[in-house]
Design a protein that fits this description.
The complex is a heterodimer of chains A (about 120) and B (about 110). With about 120 residues, chain A is mostly beta strands. In chain A, about 0% of the residues lie in helices and about 50% in strands. Chain A contains no helices and 11 strands. In chain A, the strands form 2 sheets. In chain A, strands 2, 4, 5, 6, 9, 10 and 11 form a 7-stranded mixed β-sheet that branches. In chain A, strands 1-3-8-7 form a 4-stranded antiparallel β-sheet, with no helix packed on it. The termini of chain A are far apart. Chain B is built from 1 helix and 9 strands. The model of chain B has no long low-confidence stretch (mean pLDDT about 95). The chains are: A mainly beta (about 120), B mainly beta (about 110). At the A-B interface, strand 5 of A face strand 7, helix 1 and strand 8 of B.
C-alpha cells in the first residue's frame, strides 16, 4: 500500500520561500508510470492543482503559479519537493502531495496534508 | 473562482439518490474523458471515487457512478448513507498548458 507523507515548516514569513517534501513509502517512486503532484486547499475553500513532476524530472505547473513554483524529485530518497517563492497570506493553505497515474489525470493516493501559514 | 462550476450544496434522505453536476467548457470537461470525482470528509484528505468519467477505483461502492454530457459531468450517489455526507470535488484534464482544474466543491448533506 503506497503512502505519502508531507513534511516541512508550518509557518513561513511573507516574501520568503515555502518548502515542502513528500516522502513516498510502500513502493519505489520510480516504479510504474506515475506523476507526482502538489495540490493545495485554503481553509474552507476548494482544491487547486499546483504542479507535477515525473521521475525523469519533467515538470508541469499551474499557469497561475508557474513564475513562483519549482518541483523537484530525489529518487534515491523516494521523495519529491515543492518550492513556492515570494509567498503572501494568500498562499496559506493545507498542502497535499498526491500520485497521478499516467494516462488518467486523476490522483489515486494522497498524503494527509500539512498546513502552511504565511505570517510575520 | 474555480475553473469548473459545482453547486455549493446538495442534499437527500437516506436511501435516496442525489446527483451533483460539474460544468466546464470544451477545453476541459467537454474536450476530454478525464473527469474525476473526489470525496472529502472534514479534516481528511480527498479520496478518489470516480476517474475517467465513469470508472470506480477498487473498493469504492457501486452506489457511486459518474457520467458526462457535453461540457457537464455528473456524480450520482444512490442509496444515500449517513457516511456519504462529505464535500465532493470534480476535476478535469484541461490540456497540455493547464493540465488539471478543479470544481469549487459541493457539500452533500444526508438529511
Amino acid at each position: 500500500q503506497v503512502q505519502l507523507q508531507e513534511s516541512g515548516p508550518g509557518l513561513v514569513k511573507p516574501s520568503q520561500t515555502l518548502s515542502l517534501t513528500c516522502t513516498v513509502s510502500g513502493g519505489s517512486i520510480s516504479s510504474g508510470t506515475y506523476y507526482w503532484s502538489w495540490i493545495r486547499q485554503p481553509a474552507g475553500k476548494g482544491l487547486e492543482w499546483i504542479g507535477r513532476i515525473s521521475t525523469s524530472g519533467s515538470t508541469s505547473y499551474n499557469p497561475s503559479l508557474k513564475s513562483r513554483v519549482a518541483i523537484s524529485v530525489d529518487t534515491s530518497e523516494n521523495q519529491f519537493s515543492l518550492n513556492l517563492g515570494s509567498v503572501t497570506a494568500a498562499d496559506t493553505a493545507v498542502y497535499y502531495c498526491a500520485r497521478w497515474p499516467a494516462g488518467t489525470a486523476s490522483f489515486d493516493y494522497w498524503g494527509q496534508g500539512t498546513l502552511v501559514t504565511v505570517s510575520s | 473562482q474555480s475553473a469548473l462550476t459545482q453547486p455549493p450544496s446538495a442534499s437527500g434522505s437516506p436511501g435516496q439518490s442525489v446527483t451533483i453536476s460539474c460544468t466546464g467548457t470544451s477545453s476541459d470537461v467537454g474536450g476530454y474523458d478525464y473527469v474525476s470525482w473526489y470525496q472529502q470528509h472534514p479534516g481528511k484528505a480527498p479520496k478518489l471515487i470516480i476517474y475517467e468519467v465513469t470508472k470506480r477505483p477498487s473498493g469504492v461502492p457501486d452506489r457511486f457512478s459518474g457520467s458526462k454530457s457535453g461540457n457537464t459531468a455528473s456524480l450520482t450517489v444512490s442509496g444515500l448513507q449517513a457516511e456519504d455526507e462529505a464535500d465532493y470535488y470534480c476535476s478535469s484534464y484541461a490540456g497540455s498548458n493547464n493540465l488539471v482544474v478543479f470544481g469549487g466543491g459541493t457539500k452533500l448533506t444526508v438529511l
